[in-house]
Amino acid sequence: MSQVTLRDIAEATGLSIGTVSRALKNQAGMTEDTRNKVRKAAQKLGYDFAQLKKGRIRRIVFLLHSQHNTLASSPFFSPVLQGAEEACRREGIALSFIAVGPADPVLSQIRLHQPDAILCAGFFEPEVLAALQQVGKPMVLVDMHRIGFTSVNPDNARGGYLATQHLLRSGRKRIAMLSGSLAHYSIQQRNHGFRKALFDAKVHADPDLEVIVPSIGDGEDGVALAMQSLLSLPKRPDAVFCYNDSTALAAMKYCLNQGMKIPHDIAIVGFDDISSAAAAIPPLSTIHVDKEALGRAGVELLLQDPDANPAQITMPVEMIVRESSCDD
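^ that's the sequence the OP posted. Answer follows.
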């Protein structure tokens, strides 16, 4: 008698192979009725459940959204990729890289690379994640969170809190935040930390001081417009917390070009601690994120028990004080 396959169960139940695979591995994203239907069909057909444990991960694909595959984003995601590569080398796993957008044929790209597991870095649209989930491969999100998925993230909320707390303790009274789209989990959490620090210090959160950087030009153009709007307020901010270092460096450049002195006229703090932060003039205060550790942790999570419930791992962050926010 030939061995029963996932395709056999899929044909018997009228479900996709991906759904059958996830049901047998007890993964999220379906009803209990569907899960039970698959298991009953598998038992009836004589499926060998021991097959679930046999698959060793030999190939991982590192998936990055095309919006992150830019000069501004690469100082963050390149070290994440390096950390993943390091972990894969240690385990004898081949790692491939794909940058995709919402209009790209993601599933055909995945089939082309034939991975045993998927590492998704940064933001992805819900429909892209849903399509990837149908592949039925182990999957971990890095620098993103979604219910039902295993993920690893820096402590974004804590970082936003520490950056804002530092500015408050430095005597700053009107602290602005330059933000990206709050649809991004990491940015949303950094904004939560910013607001909580203001709330805990009993400082009014002025909505005029929270500006989302418009997506125009090479990135610096959007930051310049955002800073222009902040500096044209009747009561200017005396400090700015930026959602990442690339934004902070562009904000600092704009202020210096306007003849402002940093940090005397305005203090600036970033997030991520990319390599150019310490080399900036003045050196940029920021929240340190161990980006290589994020990549390593993502691979390690993929190698854990695929039947385990989705796990959410949070990596610690650290406030790095430099001259852009402290003129002592």
